[in-house]
Amino acid sequence: MEWHKDDVMWAFRIFTRLLHNGVIDENERDYHYAYQRNEVRQVLEEVIELEAEVKIFAAGGNIYLTPGVANSLFGYKNAELREQMKLRNNSELYLAYFVILCFLAKFYNSEDQSLTSRQFVPLEELEETVTEHVNTVLESEPEEVELQEEKYQINLRTVSETWQDMPAFDDSVKNLKSARNNRVSFLLRVMRFLEEEGLVQILEDREIRILPKMEHLVVKYYFHSQRKEMLLELLSRPLSLKVKE
């Protein structure tokens, strides 16, 4: 297929704009008008997305760019994620993944594999949910935990021990955002990373609001991945494990 020069130029303008800013908001009308043209989207989808291993999409009135599944240029490696979230080791990184899954599970409707109409999660509720899952793991038979770890490919024991080693809260800490040694500050650091990626909004360090970009990614990638959807379903309710006698 042949495209007009103007369509190709606008496709690359959109791409480069997203590379620099990560988002094109609804006020940048020229970009949105161009994005609505079928030919421009064809260039984006059939050329740029394939070659750059990215996904460009519109959600909530904005246009976003996100890494493709196998992308190593725009995505993060483990070491980079640890640096971004100021994590000390891979155990804390696995815990961060677990926290994000627990957060997403709050919006998961297992009946029809869709997002609920919920918009916010109180930080206190998220802390209680993670603690509940962790307590269940630590109180369960090791063999039961190992079976779940193998089934869902998630290191529940390491995650639980790492969380358990953190104090629930430290009254001596004045700045939760920069603190490192308690559960609440850990949750905030993970959520702050998601906020910087344009996925959530933190409201007064008390509530976490899911944003359209996150909604799109969950529906597009999690609901079309059997393992990830299984994880959301697993964590959307209390863990079913045999308790130690």
How many DSSP-defined strands?
A: 8
Order of helices and strands: HEHHEEHHEEEHHHHEEHH
Radius of gyration: 20 Å
**Measured distance between first and last alpha carbons:** 68 Å
Quickly count the domains: 2
Shape: elongated
Count of alpha/pi helices: 11
Mean pLDDT score: 82
Order of strands across the widest beta sheet? 1-3-2
Report low-confidence residues grouped into runs of 5 or more: 70-74
Derived structural class: mainly alpha
Helical percentage: 40-55%
Largest sheet: 3 strands, antiparallel
Strand content: 5-15%
Can you walk through the features of this model?
This protein is mainly alpha-helical and 245 residues long. It folds into two domains: 5-67, no CATH class; 78-235, no CATH class. It contains eleven helices and eight strands. The protein has helices spanning 5-21, 29-35, 38-52, 78-85, 90-105, 123-138, 142-152, 156-164, 183-196, 212-222, 226-235; strands spanning 23-24, 54-59, 62-67, 108-109, 114-115, 120-122, 200-203, 207-210. It has a three-stranded antiparallel sheet. It has a three-stranded antiparallel sheet with strand order 6-8-7. A two-stranded antiparallel ribbon has the order 4-5.
